[in-house]
Amino acid sequence: MTSRPESDPKTDGQGGDALVVFTPSGRRGRFPTGTRILDAARALGVDLDSVCGGRGICGRCQVVQSVGEFAKHGVSSRAEHLSEFGPIERRYHEKRAPLAPGRRLGCSTTVFGDVVIDVPPDSQVHRQVVRKRAEVHAIKVDPVVRLRYVEVAPPDMHEPSGDLRRLEVALGEEWDLSDLRCDLQVLETLQAALRAGNWRVTVAVHGDRDIIAVWPDLGDRVYGAAVDIGSTTIAAHVCDLVSGDVIASAGAMNPQIRFGEDLMSRVSYVMMNPGGEREMTAAVRAAIRDLLREAAAQGGIAPDEILDVTLVGNPIMHHLLLGLNPVELGQAPFALTVDRAVDLPAGALDLGLHPGARAYVLPCVAGHVGADTAGVILSEAPYLRDEVSLVVDVGTNAEIVLGNRDRMLAASSPTGPAFEGAQISGGQRAAPGAIERVRIDPATLEPRLRIIGSDAWSDEPGFDAAAVTGICGSGIIEVVAEMYLAGILDEDGVIRADAARHSDRVVQDGRTYAYVLHRSGIEVRVTQNDVRAIQLAKAALYAGVRLLMDRLGVDRVDRIRLAGAFGSHIDVKYAMVLGLVPDCALPHVTSAGNAAGTGARIALLDRSARSEIERTVRRIEKIETAVEPRFQAHFVEAMAIPHKTAAYPELAKAVTLPARKPSGARGEGEGGDRRRRRRARAR
Amino acid sequence: MTSRPESDPKTDGQGGDALVVFTPSGRRGRFPTGTRILDAARALGVDLDSVCGGRGICGRCQVVQSVGEFAKHGVSSRAEHLSEFGPIERRYHEKRAPLAPGRRLGCSTTVFGDVVIDVPPDSQVHRQVVRKRAEVHAIKVDPVVRLRYVEVAPPDMHEPSGDLRRLEVALGEEWDLSDLRCDLQVLETLQAALRAGNWRVTVAVHGDRDIIAVWPDLGDRVYGAAVDIGSTTIAAHVCDLVSGDVIASAGAMNPQIRFGEDLMSRVSYVMMNPGGEREMTAAVRAAIRDLLREAAAQGGIAPDEILDVTLVGNPIMHHLLLGLNPVELGQAPFALTVDRAVDLPAGALDLGLHPGARAYVLPCVAGHVGADTAGVILSEAPYLRDEVSLVVDVGTNAEIVLGNRDRMLAASSPTGPAFEGAQISGGQRAAPGAIERVRIDPATLEPRLRIIGSDAWSDEPGFDAAAVTGICGSGIIEVVAEMYLAGILDEDGVIRADAARHSDRVVQDGRTYAYVLHRSGIEVRVTQNDVRAIQLAKAALYAGVRLLMDRLGVDRVDRIRLAGAFGSHIDVKYAMVLGLVPDCALPHVTSAGNAAGTGARIALLDRSARSEIERTVRRIEKIETAVEPRFQAHFVEAMAIPHKTAAYPELAKAVTLPARKPSGARGEGEGGDRRRRRRARAR
């Protein structure tokens, strides 16, 4: 108990004061009796939400009194220390939304004695979105676009001032906003909104600066979208900017594929067809527009309820999105037109959203390391950690980020498209029908495989051999690694002629040999050239990583995160077997999922993340692999399979044949599997 | 001479220093020998222009040495105290533009001893445009949009940074610009411009903040436009933003006339046809676009060389330009959607200018007092004067501004359209064929008249009686005043029945009488109703003026300025005879011409004028005549003709019959005229 004299709850605001303790923040202060909970919270900087400015209509400021003796806080929080459930709360409860038992409106409840007041998570302005993977930090929900409900003074002939000025006065008085700007399109709707709402409106304010939308009455929903523009696919997530929740996600092929499968062929298209960038710009914008319309519909909202959109993409996607010619990015010195983040009206990108919607394109790191990598960096936040992280995003090029809170490096390595299944004889994009998992029995050299779109292994019931269409990136990694583990490949990556004597799966193929992975329906074989392509790709990736490690002065990394579609699909063990990435304790090598898209989502939900990634990108040291003499040396050294790593023995144990699964459920029976593998090795 | 030891001109920059005196500013300072004139000027804050940043290519920093002994400045300015005409100057002289004798490039000329350097007006950044009328202040030329020439670092693979960042670095280093923003459309052209200019570009910067255009190499021309949107006509002036000169002017009818002749009928159109404001918005924007295209062609430039446009108009024109519904302006409380100045991309108004062009719409004063009045106020600048000015802009309403540097008042008075020739039996807009000048012989009651489009009076050779089409506003003022002076009207404005006995020009017209002003071809008569309409209009105007005078606490004003088309055409003497405006010494009652358009031009040429008018408009006290009880009293009192003014005897002398002109030249023979008039009165 405090030593100060206690106020009498019966004095009804006359003279006394009360100690108010907020949980979970622990903030506390004394206030005159009769003070509103919301005002006390604001005075103490307690994170208690309100859209309607304390008028009892938005219901955002709900609190719960903790009743009892709280020795820890020195407070006797008695029920009668709060005002009774009043008419405003009753009206809210009956007309708007029922209040759960114990819930009070902070704006309509006043204190008459010491109280402990709990602010439940849904009443906090700065909510947090917990991410699926425990190893990454939660996303703070503090969007750039916020809703502000105000009551505007009606016009007065004697003191003529425009609707906008009176709106700004209200926003200044009620929300402490000043120096506001207002789009012409808002002006077009302002008049009608003010009158329809009888001078009560909800305003969407971007960055505490720009009035971007206005609606009559109280509005309490506002949405945003995060878009990840890949060369192959475009993904969009529509988020509720109040809760931070993803309400819908959608994906589509990037229609630019018709101008060229990979990035360089799209750049070539522009070189051969001057002005061709405009066609590709129009195509990608239309695709995003359609995708957002689809996602919005899926989430049960209209596209014009989306007021903010963040976008990431590699430098060429980034330039084509913005209508910038990408040709310079296809040739040294790989000059970006703009590297810093681009903040612009979404209307300039023709995305079909609310007329006032804004777009934010994350910064690019360098000519080869784009806004998608900025998204990965933001999502993974290696710059917040003490340990040294290696983050790799594999596509046509591999973007490599290395470092910790002290120093960050980035580079792009020319892996070529082999990891994406291109330039591989049976290769294809990761799509249904593509072989994604492979196991080869070292005794018989017989393969078992699984395709995308099916849970069954090839030796299980339900597997449709005719459904096999080719092999995707992660499948190629596995088959090459398994070929090595089964003794089909030697350390130099040569398919051994003598293996052909043990199995008809190994066949002559011109002057070299090939491994026939699948032969019902179409034939999928792994040729010597395919192995070479994978060796070149993995050597390029590894050499890039080594270059950054040299520069940072480290011999090993503490953790490795594999981002992107390839990183999500790949079994990290096989990446280690092949030596795609350097030595690292296996549990610390994990997939980061679609980190670029997650980064876009973070930039959407948390305004401080934007300045954070802008600052971070500026201080990243950019390494251009093409002009680093040591790159070539590392590259040559990294061609062998397996690249020598300290983790190799441990790895070899970890890589086991899968068990035949009775139920078709994934991941079961690994124990039996491991036992069988040990038997196989023992022979 | 200064007491400091003089430097030796032969020391060639070694150790000595030199006194540099600039004229006309008189600024002076000592600099090490070898200092460039441009650097000395910058160090002293001397107004010496440069676009190319001192590279000897723009030729803007030309100076002239004043050679000789200047006791006043204490300087012996000898020719050898300046560096010799050097290779950079020779190159400029031969390749770019010949330098006049004595002219030097300040960026390529260094001092080796004391000098007096004259900065000619065309080398000053802040030029002044002298206006035709001596009584108004000159316009400072300091536009919001300025050109900046820079040399940008080429891209470097080792330090990757975007073209935009390197451009910004150059703008920061060479022009001290920071925190720049860049439009997407500039990004679209930046890449090509930088490469076409071999990393030398000229950038247009708006308000030291926004990069709005970029061109390869040195560009030194940039244009703007000032647009005055009247209910009837739209006028545009295209200006050279470097010299401040008007290079072309054009006018067109406001196509909104097809939706309604006057403002209220256009508001009614929207009331009757919801969404009709969009048609009118599209119409006026298309008209401005066409007009600017026409004016640009006339000035020999392309519309996309226009980078800035300022616009004025009455509140309804203002709202329709911006796409805002004007209905609220047609009814109490006459609420503007936006009163403050609107700064926006010109593209939002679809004006067909450079994609980066900006638009600035002057602020509105009140629901009846628009951006056109703000233009008038800026042009006339009564807020800079000690004496009390009355500025009147007559249209369908009369906008009235009264005050001086201490206090400013404004109101709108409902004069109705009579002054514009509407609701008058023979009335018409001021257009060829309209009677604009009238004299009535008090003896014979015979009129003489002149029409717009002809210099001949009706009793002179060359007058085509069949060309008369009606009577315009200024003609109505004159005929009513002359009818009174000739004794046809009594003080109450009644056409005297006994006048019909003296002349067949005065005829019975129902229960009242009319004066037949013209009867060859069409008949133009002035009916009792017409006289009443003028009485009502002039009483409304006068009552509004009186109300402001009451509020300001003055009995008389020091000067009166009549703005707008009506104010330009009207003979101020007749306005005084009729009592449209209060007592004022006749020489201080003058026409202000198209002051609204001039105000737009000032806001275009001088960036400080924008904040000046915004500040001024905010502090103007707005009087709503409709709710002022004293308005009615003033109104009734002002119905009589002539309204009693102290100046009346002087006025009556000033108003004389014109002489018959032998040559057709205007204004000749006033002496004889006056004599004849005195004879007439003497009878």
Strand content of chain A: 15-25%
Q: Helical proportion of chain A?
A: 25-40%
Task: Catalogue the unreliable spans of chain A.
Answer: 1-13, 656-683
Major beta-sheet overview of chain A: 6 strands, mixed
Task: Say how many strands of chain A there are.
Answer: 31
Strand order of the largest sheet of chain A: 16-15-14-17-19-18
Give me the secondary-structure category of chain A: alpha/beta
The rounded distance between the terminal residues' Cα atoms of chain A is 76 Å
**Quaternary structure state of the chains depicted:** homodimer
The radius of gyration of chain A is 30 Å
Global geometry of chain A: elongated
Overall pLDDT of chain A:
88
* Biggest interface, chains and residue tallies: A-B, 44 and 44 residues
Explain this structure:
- 2 copies of one chain form a homodimer.
- The first copy, chain A, is 30% helix and 23% strand.
- By secondary structure, chain A is an alpha/beta fold.
- In chain A, strand 4 and strand 5 form a beta hairpin.
- In chain A, helix 8 (371-380) packs across helix 14.
- Chain A has a 6-stranded mixed beta sheet with strand order 16-15-14-17-19-18, with helices on both faces. The first copy, chain A, has a 6-stranded mixed beta sheet with strand order 30-29-20-21-22-31, sandwiched between helices. A 5-stranded mixed beta sheet of chain A has the order 2-1-7-3-6, covered by helices on one side.
- The relative contact order of chain A is 0.08.
- The model of chain A is unreliable at 1-13 and 656-683 (pLDDT under 50).
- Chain A contains 18 helices and 31 strands.
- Chain A binds chain B through residues 154-165, 182, 184, 187-188, 190-192, 322-325, 328, 332-340, 342, 344, 348, 364-367, 622, 624, 626-627, and chain B through 154-165, 182, 184, 187-188, 190-192, 322-325, 328, 332-340, 342, 344, 348, 364-367, 622, 624, 626-627.
